[in-house]
């Protein structure tokens, strides 16, 4: 970044200075790829069972549902907001699907209900945040209790089961050989979200809002409307995740998906999305999802308790963010 | 090549399951060719347990013996395990029949239901109000016991009046709040029945703290080592439990027999379990291990050293 | 300033009084002083934690790791007590505060020296501290039987008819009151929350002040680690799992602005009390406990909406003078 | 605290032999901007030194260095003969330096008393803050300043901008300092308050304090100061006794050339009304605003700080909701409910706070330029980078933007070049009316002239311009007509022929001529 406007430049301003390769090599995504590959290799050596197509396929279930939500959450966090109620939305959507299943609603209807409830919950969050101008972190801490609370009121100590047989496909079915429906859906959604965030004017506006909401508003970006849409999207993805997880478990309890919100946010932050908004990429989030799947599954194969895995994830989270800062600081001191 | 049997528990760190693991290791030694993998999530949720099951499937274990956090949610994952040729049984807290080959009840459900009420009734010759403090509202075994207890009440204990059932989620803070709530709402409460090792400790501590020793009797299912203090101080007269060591032993023994000796688990089948004896499967392919054993002042000292 | 803040707390107090009155209709004994004292005692730990969290929130940060810190410290003191029952309890409490402070300082250092956003730091340490709890204990529980009578009994001792736990809460409340209203450090927590740039101009080291806030929330979490374990007489990895959100909820209900700079000791205490009453009263008045979550969720939303109204900038009334003229 | 002891022995006003504070070789560079280069300055006890320079000359930067907010890249600071290093605001207090900063840096949610005493509050015997003493001392300080009407218990948020500024002055006065720095202290004050402030300064002089006074107003400078130092483009270009220098000489030092060459020659071709605003009102900010803007016209908006001009423009641009009134654009009624709608209608706004409202720092130049035009540069919502680069190049090159590439982060550009990006962004939307709010605030001389020339070019092409400015020369040099606002209302509208500065100032301040 040695270029400044003090040096006289020709009247013609180039589009960009050539450095795509260099920046790609030193990017966050490259760091994550390196971490993912390293974990993959370590896993292959540590457990003889790891390199097996079915193992690798089962591994994906550890992250697909959370990953789907993380895609939308990434957009929301890039825009400078956050949604802590996603897991509670899953609980409520799943509960209402269960209710519907009890009265004989069939698979397509159940899917619609799950997604619809998710969307409605997202819209409720969005309305409170953008309509009343409340801080999203507090609003969604509130709705987190509210949504799951409603699920508890409806279901109490009961569980819904007896979903139609065809409903099992979403969480347990395979599209082709070892490729599960969940994985395929995640892959498809990742491509869609990548396209939306990085290739459309909507995505551009999300970045603008995250970097400077006021300037974005003064540039004609409808900040409130876009944030509202992002809350709806996050709700929608939570609804989809609710369909998948309900189908995978074949039953519903109000305590379903407890604690998912923090895992989803961890995934997003690990993926290089700035918690302060304005920066991030879908590729990073997908890689982070993969890393979390690899770590949890790999350590699971070694029968390491889950809690130890979470230490690893926690350390990874802080280190991956701290390292570039330390690197930068150390580098600068050496130069000075 | 050793036979790998996974003993999957509701959550790690629970004294009850640690004792079961002790029994499992004993069974492994006795059977000779068995390697026991003692595992489970740290959080007692079905989702976490499914991840554990998936990892076990990938390790191609020969058998899984699971104490489930949720009777239904684990079914798909365990079905997948069975499809991949793994023997699956549940023990302690059961799985719905389609998710396992057999279920080993620690004891007869009706017998447990009756016993927990009896423990309260024995010390209430005049009768009175009692309440139940259970674990999580989704815990299969607890729900079955409570059901059985309610059935036994009118016929066998007409003077006992069950006023409430509350849930402490096997969380000591929540159980404490619930126990306090019970004492407040029902000033005439004579006994709290907690058929869960976490809840029973919380309830006994509350009774101790509120100076209600002698007025309210805490009873239920408790590990002697964890509960000795409250028998000693009088907060509780007696509690019951089966032997978790035997339970772990039996689970591994049965899993081994089904996996290696290819015994078939079908209604009416009689399956031997080494030193513990023999069980007979009922028409849901489940079987009780033994009658619950009662601990009181006379024997708690001795058993608290064992488990 | 005074009047507006006072209004906020008076409203909350009124809401609590209404709640108590409502409960008394169904359960007449509830409003008895003795019972209210019990409610206070039952809510003490949440109050203390909320005060610690408040200090951090005042500085525009957040500490998600308090509950994990509590679990870790609780396990440490429980294990010490199990291994050395003779270890004096007051000293053990100091150990708890010290261990908690250390963990808090670690959060604070990462925020101060590396400038990582506090939500990321504490999200990381949330899992790390709980994982560390598992590592030091090997996953095993410390049971009632392994704890010494003094360890368990201290907070239950009655002093002037009030349990020591309540006294501890009272002392902590008073200390926080002094800290936040009578010391320059306390005022600088507010200052950097209200306007970090102006704080630099006023000679406040913003990073160091945030670090101190995290040290305080850590120390408080450590103290509560001991209190929690000796109260519920079981130390396990799962202790207080997810409780961080209750603590934040108490702060939010108490009118502490998540954007920093606004909040009071009375607010935090009343916010905690509100949640405490809901959780202790529902079982008492026979409302299914399954309603509890939805009720506290609605309370949070209501509190946020009302507080946002109160904080809304009034706008300058430059026209008033012109109109009068 | 040995500075206190020395106060007493230097009461001499007539022969200030020793400077109280001396700066030498101070250099400070920001990314892309050299704010100060090898400057020096001396302050004498009992004397006021005026620091003079155009916007962006580096005056405030120097103040921030003296108060420990910024650290200089090079140079020395000597106080009472001892070299000191100022690494935080706290160090500055300890050295007996206090300042009224240009922007009020105070705490909205704290009380007035605390705003005055934060960081140096009086203590009780126990070392805790003594609120009672603090309140009474705040009352005292405010009274000395002639601001007794401010309640020390009021929350700062609830004060008007002038009163806030008085609190900032009170804060500086509450510190028993030997060196007092005032960065444009009169900008937000009314005539009476300015008189009170000058009395206060006389008092401080008599106490032997050394004062640095920054102002753009020469009458004030000649009235209160003994010495002057002039900065131009971050360098010191002259210093001496005011008694020896005429205003013209000083202006020449400041600007480096004759003043009347700054504004472009114009031959306005005024056409039909484009924008007519009638009775536009807001509950608290402005009331009953009616005016017309014609094709090819530059309409100046003048007023004192806080007159409500920016708020009015925000309303016309759809950011703020109005309570009453109508707007017509080319005869058709418009009621923009968002900036997006205003832009669609053809009204665009170059905001006053460039960094906050103008550019999206963190995004490259071309993305900033295309942001309001994304509908046109993308195909059914899909970005077309080449279109964007094309658009950005067309307009930035036309404005002679200085940047190394279009992918450079706007944050790394100088203020003037950022302003060009904002203007390029709007030109790309093909607007009818362009509102410029303080278009040359904080812009260096070269860019300033370029912006003015460009404004002239725009109207020559048939656009209409509203220019909000607090700089009289700019208003007088550029506008065809001038609207003067006072306290949220239009005080007068003048044609700009033979209009003089005095009339404008008096109208803006509400003083009868
Ligand atoms: N924090 C900063 N980062 C980058 N550039 C800065 C910063 N502060 C000031 N500058 C630049 O340094 C130069 C000097 O600014 P400064 O505020 O000192 O001017 P000034 O003489 O006080 O002007 P004015 O009369 O308008 O107040 C300007 O070009 C300004 O844009
Ligand atoms: N009393 C006040 N309290 C807080 N903010 C104020 C006050 N007066 C003015 N401001 C702020 O100053 C900015 C400009 O205000 P406004 O539009 O009223 O004045 P203006 O005539 O444009 O003056 P200028 O732009 O020269 O400051 C706005 O952002 C406004 O919020
Ligand atoms: Mg300045
Ligand atoms: Mg303005």
UniProtKB/TrEMBL annotation, chain A:
Keywords: Cell inner membrane, Cell membrane, Membrane, Transmembrane, Transmembrane helix, Transport. InterPro entries: ABC_transp_permease (IPR001851). The keyword Lipid metabolism does not apply. It comes from the Bacteria. Pfam families: BPD_transp_2. The chain crosses the membrane at residues 21-47, 67-97, 109-128, 134-155, 175-196, 228-246, 267-295, 307-327. GO terms for molecular function: transmembrane transporter activity. It is found in: Cell membrane. It is a multi-pass membrane protein. GO terms for cellular component: plasma membrane. The keyword Lipid metabolism does not apply. Part of the ABC transporter complex LsrABCD involved in autoinducer 2 (AI-2) import. Probably responsible for the translocation of the substrate across the membrane. The complex is composed of two ATP-binding proteins (LsrA), two transmembrane proteins (LsrC and LsrD) and a solute-binding protein (LsrB). This is Autoinducer 2 import system permease protein LsrD. It comes from Aminobacter anthyllidis. The lineage of its organism: Bacteria, Pseudomonadati, Pseudomonadota, Alphaproteobacteria, Hyphomicrobiales.
UniProtKB/TrEMBL annotation, chain C:
InterPro entries: ABC_transp_permease. Its main location: membrane. It comes from the Bacteria. It is a multi-pass membrane protein. It holds the Pfam family BPD_transp_2. The chain crosses the membrane at residues 12-31, 37-58, 70-87, 93-112, 119-142, 162-181, 210-233, 245-278, 290-308. Keywords: Cell membrane, Membrane, Transmembrane, Transmembrane helix. The keyword Transmembrane applies. It is found in: Cell membrane. Signal peptide: none annotated. GO terms for molecular function: transmembrane transporter activity. The keyword Secreted does not apply. GO terms for cellular component: plasma membrane. This is ABC transporter permease.
TrEMBL record, chain D:
Its main location: membrane. GO terms for cellular component: plasma membrane. It is a peripheral membrane protein. It comes from the Bacteria. It is found in: Cell membrane. Residues 21-258, 270-512 form the ABC transporter domain. This is Sugar ABC transporter ATP-binding protein.
């Amino acid at each position: 970044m040695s270029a400044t406007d003090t040096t006289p430049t020709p009247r013609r301003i180039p589009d960009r200075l050539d450095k795509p390769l260099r920046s790609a090599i030193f990017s966050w995504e490259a760091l994550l790829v390196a971490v993912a590959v390293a974990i993959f290799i370590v896993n292959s050596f540590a457990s003889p069972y790891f390199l097996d197509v079915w193992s690798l396929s089962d591994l994906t279930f550890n992250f697909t549902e959370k990953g789907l939500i993380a895609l939308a959450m990434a957009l929301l966090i890039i825009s400078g907001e956050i949604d802590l109620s996603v897991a509670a939305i899953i609980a409520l959507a799943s509960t209402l699907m269960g209710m519907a299943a009890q009265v004989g609603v069939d698979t397509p209807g159940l899917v619609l209900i799950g997604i619809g409830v998710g969307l409605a919950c997202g819209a409720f969050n969005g309305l409170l945040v953008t309509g009343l101008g409340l801080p999203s972190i507090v609003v969604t801490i509130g709705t987190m209790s509210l949504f799951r609370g409603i699920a508890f009121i409806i279901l109490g100590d009961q569980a819904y089961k007896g979903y139609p047989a065809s409903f099992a496909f979403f969480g347990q079915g395979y599209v082709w050989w070892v490729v599960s429906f969940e994985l395929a859906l995640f892959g498809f959604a990742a491509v869609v979200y990548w396209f939306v965030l990085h290739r459309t004017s909507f995505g551009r506006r999300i970045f603008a809002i995250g970097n400077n909401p006021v300037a974005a508003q003064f540039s004609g970006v409808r900040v409130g409307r876009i944030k509202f849409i992002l809350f709806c999207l996050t709700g929608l993805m939570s609804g989809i995740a609710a369909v998948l997880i309900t189908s995978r478990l074949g039953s519903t309890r109000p305590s379903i998906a407890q604690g998912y919100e923090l895992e989803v946010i961890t995934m997003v932050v690990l993926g290089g999305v700035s918690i302060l908004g304005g920066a991030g990429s879908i590729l990073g989030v997908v890689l982070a999802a993969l890393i979390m799947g690899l770590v949890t599954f790999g350590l699971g194969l070694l029968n390491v308790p889950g809690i130890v895995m979470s230490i690893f994830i926690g350390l990874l989270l802080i280190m991956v963010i701290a390292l570039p800062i330390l690197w930068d600081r150390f580098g600068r001191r050496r130069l000075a | 090549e050793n036979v790998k049997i996974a003993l999957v528990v509701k959550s790690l760190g629970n004294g009850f399951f640690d004792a079961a693991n002790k029994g499992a290791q004993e069974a492994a030694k006795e059977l000779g060719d068995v390697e026991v993998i003692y595992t489970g999530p740290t959080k007692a949720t079905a989702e976490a347990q499914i991840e554990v099951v998936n990892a076990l499937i990938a390790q191609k274990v020969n058998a899984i013996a699971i104490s489930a956090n949720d009777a239904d949610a684990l079914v798909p994952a365990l079905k997948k395990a069975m499809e991949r040729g793994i023997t699956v049984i549940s023990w302690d807290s059961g799985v719905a029949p389609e998710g396992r080959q057999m279920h080993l009840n620690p004891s007869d459900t009706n017998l447990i239901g009756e016993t927990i009420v009896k423990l309260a009734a024995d010390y209430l010759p005049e009768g009175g109000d009692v309440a139940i403090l259970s674990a999580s509202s989704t815990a299969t075994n607890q729900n079955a016991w409570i059901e059985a207890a309610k059935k036994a009440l009118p016929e066998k204990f007409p003077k006992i009046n069950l006023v409430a059932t509350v849930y402490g989620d096997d969380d000591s803070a929540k159980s404490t709040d619930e126990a306090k709530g019970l004492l407040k709402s029902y000033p005439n409460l004579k006994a709290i029945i907690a058929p869960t090792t976490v809840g029973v400790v919380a309830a006994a501590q509350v009774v101790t703290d509120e100076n209600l020793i002698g007025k309210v009797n805490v009873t239920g299912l408790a590990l002697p080592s964890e509960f000795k203090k409250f028998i000693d101080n009088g907060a509780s007269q007696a509690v019951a439990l089966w032997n978790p060591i035997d339970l772990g032993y039996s689970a591994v023994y049965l899993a081994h027999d089904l996996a290696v000796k290819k015994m078939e688990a079908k209604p009416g089948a009689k399956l031997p379990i080494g030193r513990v004896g023999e069980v007979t499967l009922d028409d849901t392919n489940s079987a009780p291990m033994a009658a619950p054993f009662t601990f009181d002042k006379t024997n708690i000292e001795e058993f608290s050293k064992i488990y | 300033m005074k009047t507006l803040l006072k209004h906020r707390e008076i409203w909350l107090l009124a809401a609590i009084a209404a709640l108590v009155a409502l409960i008394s209709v169904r359960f007449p004994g509830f409003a008895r002083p003795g019972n209210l004292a019990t409610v206070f005692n039952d809510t003490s730990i949440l109050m203390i934690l909320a005060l610690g969290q408040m200090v951090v929130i005042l500085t525009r940060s957040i500490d998600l790791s308090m509950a994990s810190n509590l679990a870790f410290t609780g396990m440490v003191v429980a294990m010490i007590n199990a291994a050395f029952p003779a270890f004096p309890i007051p000293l053990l409490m100091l150990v708890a505060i010290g261990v908690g402070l250390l963990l808090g300082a670690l959060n604070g250092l990462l925020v101060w020296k590396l400038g990582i956003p506090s939500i990321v730091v504490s999200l990381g340490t949330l899992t790390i501290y709980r994982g560390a709890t598992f590592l030091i204990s090997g996953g095993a529980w410390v049971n009632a039987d392994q704890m010494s009578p003094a360890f368990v009994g201290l907070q239950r001792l009655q002093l002037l008819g009030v349990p020591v736990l309540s006294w501890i809460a009272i002392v902590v409340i008073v200390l926080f009151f002094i800290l936040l209203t009578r010391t320059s450090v306390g005022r600088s927590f507010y200052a950097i929350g209200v306007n970090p740039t102006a704080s630099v101009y006023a000679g406040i080291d913003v990073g160091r002040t945030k670090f101190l806030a995290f040290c305080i929330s850590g120390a408080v979490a450590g103290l509560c680690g001991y209190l929690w374990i000796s109260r519920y007489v079981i130390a396990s990895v799962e202790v207080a799992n997810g409780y961080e959100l209750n603590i934040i909820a108490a702060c939010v209900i108490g009118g502490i602005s998540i954007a920093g700079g606004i909040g009071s000791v009375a607010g935090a205490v009343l916010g905690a009390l509100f949640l405490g009453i809901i959780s202790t009263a529902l079982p008492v008045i026979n409302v299914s406990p399954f309603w509890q979550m939805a009720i506290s969720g609605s309370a949070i939303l209501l509190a946020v909406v009302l507080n946002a109204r109160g904080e809304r900038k009034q706008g300058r009334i430059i026209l008033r003078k012109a109109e009068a003229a | 605290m040995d500075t206190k002891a020395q106060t007493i022995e230097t009461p001499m006003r007539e022969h200030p032999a020793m400077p109280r504070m001396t700066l030498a070789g101070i250099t400070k560079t920001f990314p892309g901007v050299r704010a100060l280069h090898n400057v020096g300055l001396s302050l004498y006890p009992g004397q006021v030194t005026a620091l003079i320079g155009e916007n962006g000359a580096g005056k405030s930067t120097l103040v921030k260095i003296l108060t420990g907010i910024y650290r200089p890249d090079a140079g020395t600071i000597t106080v009472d003969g001892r070299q000191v290093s100022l690494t935080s605001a706290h160090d500055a207090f300890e050295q007996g330096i206090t300042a009224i900063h240009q922007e009020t840096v105070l705490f909205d949610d704290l009380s007035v008393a605390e705003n005055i005493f934060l960081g140096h509050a009086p203590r009780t015997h126990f070392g805790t803050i003594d609120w009672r003493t603090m309140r009474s001392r705040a009352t005292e300080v405010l009274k000395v300043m002639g601001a007794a009407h401010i309640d020390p218990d009021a929350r700062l948020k609830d004060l008007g901008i002038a009163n806030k500024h008085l609190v900032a002055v009170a804060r500086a006065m509450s510190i028993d300092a030997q060196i007092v720095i005032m960065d444009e202290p009169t900008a937000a004050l009314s005539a009476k308050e300015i008189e009170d402030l000058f009395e206060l300064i006389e008092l401080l002089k008599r106490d032997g304090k050394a004062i640095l006074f920054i102002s753009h107003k020469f009458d004030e400078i000649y009235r209160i100061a003994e010495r002057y130092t002039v900065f131009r483009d971050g360098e010191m270009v002259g210093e001496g006794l005011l008694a020896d220098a005429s205003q013209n000489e000083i202006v020449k030092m400041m600007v480096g050339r004759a003043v009347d060459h700054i504004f472009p020659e114009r031959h306005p071709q005024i056409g039909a009304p484009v924008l007519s605003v009638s009775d536009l009102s807001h509950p608290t900010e402005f009331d009953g605003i009616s005016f017309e803007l014609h094709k090819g016209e530059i309409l100046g908006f003048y007023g004192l700080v806080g007159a409500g001009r920016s708020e009015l423009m925000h309303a016309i641009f759809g950011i703020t909701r109005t309570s009453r009134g109508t707007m017509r654009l080319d005869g058709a009624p418009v009621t923009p409910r968002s900036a997006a709608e205003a832009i669609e209608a053809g009204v665009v706004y170059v905001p006053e706070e460039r960094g906050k409202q103008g550019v999206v720092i963190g995004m490259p130049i071309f993305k900033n330029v295309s942001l309001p035009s994304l509908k046109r540069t993308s195909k059914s919502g899909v970005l077309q980078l080449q279109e964007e680069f094309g658009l950005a190049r067309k307009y930035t090159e036309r404005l002679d933007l200085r940047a190394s590439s279009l992918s450079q982060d706007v944050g790394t550009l100088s203020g003037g070049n950022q302003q060009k990006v904002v203007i390029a962004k709007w030109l790309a939307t093909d607007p009818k009316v362009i509102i410029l709010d303080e278009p040359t605030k904080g812009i260096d001389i070269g860019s300033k002239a370029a912006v003015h020339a460009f404004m002239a070019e725009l109207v020559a092409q048939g656009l209409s311009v509203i220019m909000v400015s607090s700089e009289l020369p700019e208003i007088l040099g550029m506008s065809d007509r001038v609207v003067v606002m006072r306290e949220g209302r239009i005080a007068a509208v003048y044609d700009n022929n033979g209009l003089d500065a005095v009339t404008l100032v008096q109208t803006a301040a509400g003083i009868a001529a």
